[in-house]
Amino acid sequence: MKHDTVTPYNTQHEKKEQVAQMFNNIAGRYDLLNSILSLGIHKGWRKKCVNILQEKQPKKILDVATGTGDFAIACSKLKPETIIGIDISDGMLKVGREKIKNLNLDSVISLKNGNAETIFFPDSNFDAIVVGFGVRNFQDLKKGLRNLHRMLKPGGQLVVLEFSYPRNAIVKAFYNFYFSYITPFIGRIFSKDTRAYSYLTESVKAFPDNEKFTTLMSEIGYVNSNFTALSMGIAAIYTGEKPK
Ligand SMILES: C[S@@+](CC[C@H](N)C(=O)[O-])C[C@H]1O[C@@H](n2cnc3c(N)ncnc32)[C@H](O)[C@@H]1O
Hints:
By secondary structure, the chain is of the alpha/beta class. Helix content is 45%, strand content 20%.
């Protein structure tokens, strides 16, 4: 199945509306569930992404699909001048704004409603753009990646963190069991939304594999497109630059 046809609720509404609705539904429990379901591993993955950016010392960062702001908060370690986080779910943004305020980071990080595929910031505006667990939810992946490319400065860096479907047979068996039974079960207990965590599994399976996604980035115009598999292939970091 093509990734853009996998939607949370299988209704007539566009994928982006269904995704925003789903994240609004689970926003209050998202951080808790994230920590339980990933056993905290996701924090280490974001740290790796931040380390990749260290060398470039980005001053202006865009965190796309920021959700409750964790990636933006992790990027504040780079001491940039500004971080802007955008997301289509007001529920997630509300939780994020509260966290950022409590961490006294509101002079550096600001969050606003915006769709990766259509948001308008001027061309060549950001030194770095990061996306954590967001690209899988884009309605039109190519359109989204093109828009991010447009907003990057020449030489600017894109860093994408996303789940992937493992290849090793043993890891795959464990992964299938975990994502087919454990994740939806815990998701159902802790969130009001019974579909959200089944959608997670389905959308990961339907998403382009590591090589396909890297090729797509190159086709769109990113150079030095590459990936690093994480935790036995259950996630990956994709990197690419806008040519100078
Ligand atoms: C799994 S959460 C990830 C949040 C955060 N980046 C993190 O690392 O925890 C995915 C987020 O992507 C957002 N999203 C999905 N499609 C989007 C789009 N086209 N533009 C902006 N945000 C989008 C959702 O609303 C949701 O908050």
